[in-house]
């Protein structure tokens, strides 16, 4: 029990050092808070089963950036081994057909109402037949009236058609002028967009040719890079696989962001006025970094180093 208490204390200290609460850890791991608390206190009895103990400890370690293999090796004598638990036998709740009472009295009662039902059904059928006949008579009268009014209608339709043709001709001329004007406007906008895109591409190509992003040093889970040859320092961080803890600070320790970065979310930071930025990533698998719109690699293999800290030292081109 002492070793388990030491494991719990170590996990709790590592979590608190990253500024994570149990609620934050619950969002990252999708493990209920009471189970996370049970791991820290060494109280595995609260788990849904011994099978989950190792899995929950592994997820806890990955979320706070600890080496899972090292933790399991160090505490292998105190962490329960995986074992299959017997599933409780399910009790059948299906009642025997013999136990279901037969409501013979209800059936007999239905037969008593059968004559009344048949009479009502007959009346409904007769009513439907009468309604159909009436509809046919009305339809025939409407057809006769329409045939009598047809000659007058044809004359009116002819006059109306001439007026419609004249109106259509006028509208076509007006529409042609409007379409031409709209086409010219659209063509002008397209040309302006193409020009702007071309100028932007040339500028980015020019800047990318000058920009340098070099590794300065690596130690543990931290790495330092130098950014030079550019007058801008824009940072983008995107998480594509899972939620992750993200902490972005300048060289003076002032935080720009310190919270959960959700899966599929991108955060952008304009750090042009800063000389240094420190990026702390709690769960690096699937995290992408871009500097001035250009993708840069993480310093370590994310499958081996889950938590990574990247420091970028920036020197503007005009200061060189």
TrEMBL record:
Polar residues bias spans: 81-93
Highest taxon of source: Bacteria
Bilayer-crossing regions: 113-134
Keyword field: Membrane, Transmembrane, Transmembrane helix
Residue intervals of the HTH cro/C1-type domain: 11-71
Low complexity bias: start-end ranges: 152-168
Gene Ontology MF, one: DNA binding
CDD domains in alphabetical order: HTH_XRE (cd00093)
Biased amino acid composition, Basic and acidic residues: 172-218
Keyword Nucleus: no
SMART domains: HTH_XRE
Protein name: HTH cro/C1-type domain-containing protein
Lineage, top ranks: Bacteria, Bacillati, Bacillota, Bacilli, Bacillales
